[in-house]
From TrEMBL:
PANTHER family: RHOMBOID PROTEASE, SLR1461 PROTEIN. Its main location: membrane. It comes from the Bacteria. It is a multi-pass membrane protein. The chain crosses the membrane at residues 26-50, 70-94, 101-119, 125-146, 153-171, 177-197. It comes from Streptomyces solincola. This is Rhomboid family intramembrane serine protease.
Length: 211
């Protein structure tokens, strides 16, 4: 007896698509940026009390400040410089999935903070979202090539054309008062995140045998 082969399909979950995905990404980054501004308002109103949560190098007690430091800034000018690139790059990264973005952001913040803690100059204090900004730049630049996605490659190239000069300047050690270490470790962490959170191609199920 010959059995007709069956068509086997997978129940792949695609999640948000199109406009819904864009709305979710936009709301996430709007809330993220709003939180940064709210914290800076609180910091200013309290005589910059939150500045104490920046990271000072090689002090074990400062490890607890690695995450908070990524949400704090030294003045509104510092915050303004990070707001637009964070909002744009964060939105583009979050279009790939909210959970994926949160994982990427967490990896960048922690890896960047540890790098700053290890190698920053003694008696320095580092805070700000620029490490995450540089990390998202590296992530977007590498993501398309890692995932072999032509649209994401185009996005990365556009981001590189728009912010590449600023990124290169930001990792230069010749700027006084700027943590090039934080920028460099953020950039490296972002590229690493593209590999850690790369899209896995689902395996095709084996077809049933013929009888």
């Amino acid at each position: 007896m010959t059995r007709t082969p069956r068509t086997v399909t997978t129940g792949e979950v695609t999640g948000w698509r199109g406009v819904s995905r864009a709305k979710a990404a936009a709301w996430l980054m709007a809330g993220w940026v709003a939180l940064l501004w709210a914290l800076e308002v609180v910091d200013t109103a309290t005589g910059h009390a939150l500045d104490a949560y920046g990271v000072s190098p090689r002090d074990p007690a400062e490890l607890r400040d690695i995450v908070p430091s990524a949400f704090l800034h030294y003045g509104f000018d510092h915050l303004m410089a990070n707001t637009v690139p964070l909002a744009v790059m964060g939105f583009l990264a979050a279009l790939g999935g909210i959970r994926r973005f949160l994982g990427v952001a967490a990896l960048i913040i922690v890896a960047d903070g540890l790098g700053v803690w290890l190698v920053s100059p003694a008696y320095s204090v580092t805070a700000g979202a620029s490490g995450l900004v540089f990390g998202l730049f590296g992530y977007l630049l590498a993501r398309g090539f890692v995932d072999r996605s032509a649209p994401d490659i185009v996005v990365g190239l556009v981001i590189g054309a728009v912010w590449g000069g600023s990124i290169w300047l930001g990792i230069s050690p010749n700027q006084s008062g700027v943590s090039w270490q934080g920028h460099l470790f953020g950039l490296v962490a972002g590229v690493l995140a593209a590999f850690v959170f790369r899209r896995r191609t689902p395996r095709k199920p084996a077809l049933p045998p013929y009888a």
